[in-house]
Design goal:
CATH class of one domain: Mainly Beta
CATH topology of one domain: Methylamine Dehydrogenase, Chain H
Helix content: under 10%
Strand content: over 45%
Number of helices: 2
Number of strands: 33
CATH superfamily of one domain: YVTN repeat-like/Quinoprotein amine dehydrogenase
Largest sheet: 5 strands, antiparallel
Structural class: mainly beta
Amino acid sequence: MHRAEAQSAGIGKRRGIRRTVRGAASFGRAAAAAGLTASLAMMAGCGNAYRPVVSAIGAVGPAAQPTKYAIAVSSPSATSNGLMTMVDFSGDTVLVTAELGVNPYYLALNANGTSGYTLNSDKTVTSFDISTSLISSQVLQTTLLAGANPVNLFTTSNTTYIADPGVNAIDQLLGSPPALKQELPVATGFTPVYVVGQQGAPRFYGISQSASGGPGQVEAIENATSLTSSPTISTTLPVGRGPVYGVMTVDDRRAFILNQTDNTVTVINAQTNALDTPVNTIPVGVRPVWADLASGLDELVVLNEGTGTSNGSVTLVNIPLCMATAQPTNPNCDPTNPIDATTFGQVVTTIPVGVNPIMVSVLSDYSRAYVANAGVAGLPCAAVAVPNVSTTCTVSVVNLTTETVTATIPINGHPAWIATANSMPAGKVYVVCKDSQVMTVIETDTDTLYTTIPLQGYGVSVRMTSP
């Protein structure tokens, strides 16, 4: 108020001064107006109309985050229905919670991130649309045949494949909800454990272990070309002992099978449907358990479990192919079926990580890999482990450029699954734990714990709708 009064007083004084110089000021304004009129006339004479220039100032702020969701599955108990929790990537808010089958233990999403599927302990399959308006009554259920014991699920645009040791076959299901169409038999003496492939690939591979402990095998499943045709097993190929997992390159040209007992990776040329040449076996670390692709680096990231009570490791393997651009110096390089480059299969390095690592996930910019270390089973998690009393439960951050562990992040629980999502300025890492009812979120710009999200059940799995 004092400032307003002072300003009013000042205005009165200035008005008094204006009265004494009114004539001079009026003369000056008249002269200036005449000059401005002359200038505008000259501009008009050049054929250009004078217009003021207005520059808009754009709003400054962070770029909009892409639409993507974390889909988490949890289970309150062995006899309760599981729950699907859908979390918004950009806002870290729970958008949907829907009821699933009894005690789900495996989650898969289709390649487009529009549908989800779970395997449940009551030998059913639940399927659901990934939608912000989903309700529990829209979750569909499929009951498998008597004796079924599914362990893994892989889905394409129109077909779902299930590795089913209960009936010693790869189950093929069609439609929504998925309905059993046929069982692709696995040879006697082998047990199916996993199906590996890529959306739209001409063939997939069922991975089977030997019941006698000998070398395992893969069954080449020729993809159905339409809803009226049926997939068939075209051949079987030998792999190492104790195969447990596999990945296929995004171009569908190579498949890598992890042999846990042999500590090796078997390489399959998916175009010729045969073991790769000249390199078809790559030695890695102790008990390989999981793998992911760093395609932009032409590297396979293999996670080695170790003994379960000691530190595991990550093995980086070169997997470049001789592409069409190499033809001037290599006339044998066929662009339709490129051969392995000279460094294919070479181990770049092996990097120690935490105790009992179970899963690795590579960011889509190929800068880092995140490893979930479950710690010693049966011991509670602690920041500092005490032998035979407690264990560390962590996420290791592996820099794929420097090939070093750059951070170790404590997790409040034994990790069951890990998933990553890249974005700018910060991506996120999601971890669910089998003895915790929250999902941990890590931000990749700082590689530190960001928040936790309630699940209403113990963590089973988490997947991202897009990388």
